[in-house]
Amino acid sequence: MKPHTLKIGVLGPYGAGKTTLVRTLSTIPAVSTEAPSSEGGKATTTVALDYGYLDFGSVGVHLFGTPGQARFHDVLDVVLQGALGALILVRADRPSDLPRVRELRDYVASVLEVPYLLGATHLDKERRWETAEIALFLKEREDRVLRLDPRDSGQARRALARLVELVCEEGGVRCR
Question: Is pTM, for the whole model, over 0.85?
């Protein structure tokens, strides 16, 4: 384990790619608390958390994925206690999720008070919003909304690198 470690939350609506991102980035076998899903589109859903760990430069990163359904919102306070940053995933092909993304972003900004980035997923779909449109809808700076395929380790690591930079710069965390 590295001398400096960061706890990073991975949030987003149902089906945004949180579990996939944690599994893609983790260098240990990721832990998932999955149960059969009653919603369409996928067989299982996270009901408590996903956990992964990776050494990232001079820091160790603990990744904590949260459930996406609004009914599990109370879990956020427990899972994200002590988090120093958050990566909020948003499905670019499901604009109906944007109010939930706004709610999660506002939670991160006002309750956790930590740096965050938004990762736009499912950009391979024919009908989708571009990152600039998502930023405009959410009244967010465009540089805070990144293209992110959670299955692609290069994209996932670049997003994490940018978030770690923000945590070290804006969050006042010593990372070296």
Answer: yes
Rounded Cα distance between 173 and 176, Å, is 9
CATH code: domain of residue 88: 3.40.50.300
Per-residue model confidence as pLDDT tens for the chain (176 residues)? 555 789 999 999 988 999 999 999 999 988 776 666 566 666 665 555 889 999 988 889 999 998 766 666 677 888 888 999 999 999 999 999 999 999 999 999 999 899 999 999 998 898 999 999 999 999 999 999 999 999 999 999 999 999 999 998 876 777 76
If one counts the domains in the chain, the total is 1
132 within a domain of the structure (yes/no): yes
- In which domain, by residue range, is 46 found? 4-169
For 62-73, b/e burial (b = at least 16 CB within 10 A) is bbbbbbbbeebe
- Residue 159, H or E segment: helix 153-169
